[in-house]
């Protein structure tokens, strides 16, 4: 394969072009493009666990279904805990009545200070037991802490579960972030508010993104640093929709 010879124009021609354009070139400046992979992940993601030992009677939402904030995701039988609350409430009522009666008797000098103090302590203990039973009853229903979707369901209806048993994983598509692992050398120029474009593989769409924060340390082995970004137009990304777990190519246009 042959190569042609490039002939530079005469000096007078170059000077003429400079005068015509009205500037003197000092250095050739070209835009550089850097590209890394980016992973979309949810800001809000949670594994919900059981706080009580009981039987599951209803699962409100299953994998892929969306829900609103406060919706019932899962419900336990809870007969035992409701009965326990009823008993604790009755005991508190009796102990509190005894305490108030002792106060009246003390005014009439018909009882001692120690009897009043003991009855007050018993009423306080009964109140604590009643409050504990109320907390257990509220745990019989698992409500959504935010609007989102079920990512995984780990139990079935009619199963008996123990405390701390994982029930389901939920996440929110309303607020997404992009994780990037970039070379640590980029720290010379990559800063919060820096813009880049992300082309999502699964959707084929391109979105403008902005660096939100940079990790506090560099991985010494790979010489990379974690960078977190957000979609500039989150509503447009949600309309596609861009989902958690999708990935794509993040392109930075850099002017040296």
Nutshell version of this structure?
This protein is of the alpha+beta class. The protein contains 4 helices and 14 strands. The radius of gyration is 33 Å and the shape is elongated.
Please tell me about this protein's structure:
- The structure is a single chain.
- By secondary structure, the chain is α+β, with helices and mostly antiparallel strands.
- It folds into 2 domains: 32-43 and 173-254, Beta Barrel (Elongation Factor Tu (Ef-tu), domain 3); 46-171, OB fold (Dihydrolipoamide Acetyltransferase, E2P), CATH 2.40.50.100.
- It has helices at 11-21, 79-107, 113-138, 234-239; strands at residues 32-42, 45-49, 54-59, 66-67, 72-76, 141-143, 148-153, 160-161, 166-171, 176-183, 195-200, 206-214, 224-231, 247-254.
- The longest helix is centred in the middle third of the chain and has 29 residues, at 79-107.
What are the salient characteristics of this protein?
alpha+beta, 256 residues, 2 domains, 33% strand, OB fold (Dihydrolipoamide Acetyltransferase, E2P), Elongation Factor Tu (Ef-tu), domain 3, elongated, four-stranded antiparallel beta sheet, six-stranded antiparallel beta barrel
């Amino acid at each position: 394969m042959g190569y042609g010879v490039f002939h530079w124009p005469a000096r007078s021609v170059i000077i003429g072009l400079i005068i015509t354009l009205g500037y003197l070139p000092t250095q050739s400046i070209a835009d550089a493009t850097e590209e890394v992979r980016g992973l979309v992940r949810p800001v809000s993601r949670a594994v919900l666990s059981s706080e009580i030992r009981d039987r599951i009677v209803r699962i409100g939402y299953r994998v892929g279904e969306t829900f609103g904030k406060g919706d019932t995701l899962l419900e336990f039988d809870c007969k035992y805990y409701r009965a326990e609350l009823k008993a604790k409430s009755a005991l508190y009522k009796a102990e509190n009545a005894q305490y108030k009666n002792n106060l009246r008797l003390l005014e009439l000098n018909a009882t001692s200070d120690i009897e009043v103090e003991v009855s007050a302590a018993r009423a306080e203990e009964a109140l604590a037991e009643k409050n504990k039973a109320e907390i257990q009853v509220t745990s019989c229903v698992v409500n959504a802490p935010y609007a989102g979707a079920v990512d995984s369901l780990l139990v079935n209806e009619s199963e008996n579960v123990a405390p701390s048993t994982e029930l389901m994983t939920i996440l929110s598509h309303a607020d997404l972030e992009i994780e990037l692992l970039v070379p640590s050398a980029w720290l010379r120029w990559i800063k919060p508010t820096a813009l880049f474009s992300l082309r999502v593989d699964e959707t084929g769409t391109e979105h403008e993104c902005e660096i939100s924060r940079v990790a506090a340390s560099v991985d010494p082995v790979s010489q990379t640093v974690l960078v977190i970004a957000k979609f500039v137009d989150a509503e447009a990304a949600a309309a596609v929709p861009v989902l958690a777990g999708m990935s794509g190519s993040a392109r930075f246009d850099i002017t040296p």
